[in-house]
Amino acid sequence: MSATIPSETVPANLTRIAAAGEDAPGVLWRLREEGRQLDANLVHLPAGERIGTHTEPDLDVLLVVVTGTGTVTTGEDAVDAGPGSLVWLAHGQARAVEAGPGGLSYLTVHRRRPGLRIGLR
């Protein structure tokens, strides 16, 4: 990730962060506020890149396209998505994401997973 990409600040201009990181695949921004109940990540996929089919067993996820275009596949359904598109991914539902010819940057939001704790049972 480029050192010029603002990261982990709130408020954040996700469109500007996505534009600055268009050559950097992966997570460009993440929410890290203490005491939060949600996790949020701005993810960038370069043109034609794909996150393969997987299932999230425990968490519903909202996916919001910030820049670019792509396809979100849920089970047997494929949705073409562009800036402003919102897709709800239910827990237990198989999903995959593929970037279009100009790449794809999208925000995911879901309930925060509790951190690992070491202690006595």
Automatic annotation (TrEMBL):
Q: What Gene3D superfamilies does this protein map onto?
A: Jelly Rolls
Kindly provide the name given to this protein in its UniProt entry: Cupin 2 conserved barrel domain-containing protein
Q: Enumerate the InterPro entries for this protein.
A: RmlC-like_jellyroll (IPR014710), RmlC_Cupin_sf (IPR011051)
